[in-house]
What we know:
- By secondary structure, the chain is of the alpha/beta class.
- It has helices at 38-41, 76-86, 104-114, 139-144, 160-173, 195-200, 207-224, 236-247, 259-262, 284-296, 311-314, 331-342, 347-361; strands spanning 2-12, 17-26, 29-33, 44-48, 53-56, 58-63, 88-93, 120-125, 147-151, 177-180, 191-192, 204-205, 228-231, 252-256, 301-302, 377-387, 406-416, 419-422, 425-428.
- The protein has two domains: 2-54 and 371-385 and 402-428, Urease, subunit C, domain 1, CATH 2.30.40.10; 57-361, TIM Barrel (Alpha-Beta Barrel).
- The chain is 30% helix and 25% strand.
- Helix 5 packs across helix 7 (207-224), helix 7 (207-224) runs parallel beside helix 8 (236-247) and helix 8 (236-247) packs parallel to helix 10 (284-296).
- Strands 1, 2, 3, 4, 5, 16, 17, 18 and 19 form a nine-stranded mixed β-sheet that branches. Strands 6-7-8-9-10-13-14-15 form an eight-stranded parallel β-sheet.
- Helix 6 (195-200) links the parallel strand 11 and strand 12.
Amino acid sequence: MKTAxxxxxILDPVSGIExxxxxxxENGVISKVGELTKDDLKDAKVYNLxxxxxxxxxxxxxxHLREPGREDEETIKTGCNSAAAGGFTSVLAMPDTKPIADNxxxxxxxxxxxxxxxxxxHLAGAVSFERKGTALAPLAELHEAGAVAFTDDEKAVKTAxxxxxxxxxxxxxxxxxxxxxxxxxxxxxxxxEGFLSTLLGLPPNPSVAEELIxxxxxxxxxxxGGKVHFSNISTKRAVEIIRSAKEKGSKITADTSPHYxxxxxxxxxxxxxxxxVNPPLRSEEDLNAVIEGLRDGTIDCITSDHSPHAIxxxxxxxxxxxxxxxxxxxELALTLTELVHKRKIPLSKIITLFAVNPRKILNxxxxxxxxxxxxxxxxxxxSQIWTVNIKDFKSKCKNSPFDKKLLTGKSVGVxxxxxxxxxxxxxxx
Length: 429
């Protein structure tokens, strides 16, 4: 089977290519890049992508697929469908399933359920048994079962001793420990601590709770020599601490999510529970620092922290609703709108944040657009103006604060594993 993409703009930050061209895919492999002849197009399904960018397939390294255990909120299939609709060919599944992914059986179940999808599902194993922070999970077993990272996601690794032990094991496999940055005794609140949290009567979650864990983990990472990846960076001081540590050679990386560069704590005046995230939305100063961290490379990648929740869970008082929003289907568009069109960060930099850096952090192959390579592609119309409609989401859940938001830029298709998602439909190649 042959598929031809003609008149597209190929943008591959690894090879440094950005030019108008065409490419031919045969049996899931790129067979030609450049001008296509009549013979090339014979018996091919042809897509005219005038004005559309063709980039290496994007990856989101922080996704909650909920299966096994909460199939009412999301399944591996619906989560992968949501990823494809958002422009992603690869995701990293967090271990907060029920049962917890702290053993080979659960990882094997997820891997089996995901094996035939267009979207590649990579696995993160828990750092501790049941993510309770009392005893180390069998990290070697998890690695053998396919884990490419370890995390007690939604919780910081509970003690410095446990983190040290986890890093010592992770070093043997050259894998990172992904850290949720919240010091337990200070965290737990639902709003950024300050005037607004007092005004709204919401329990505070101070920025120092995030920053303390970052400082602790940097010191332990430096001491042991292991890799720590900080997730959902949201404060100015956190960005400054990470920047300084990187300059001194620390083996650390970091990500943030679109809500931390598109929304501030001021939005909480609506008491919309879809705005309850962890860490909480911060100040305008924090937002600007996060954007600068993305611009200068302090923050290595962008993730959605895709967190589906049932409608009955979110429709309650703000302090009782669970943290998290669904983000896979708005993540790229928010990034294009807020960073490319408004802040003028180059598209090539954005593609590096999405397609290249996550895979480097996880020691995964980075897709390239060249002859002989597997066709793992994302197609992006950076100028398409559209309005978010949660009713159209492929995800089972609709807990997004961006419903009815006007955005500029969108994925129009993805290709991977000899499958194509284009125009809202899947097809085999």
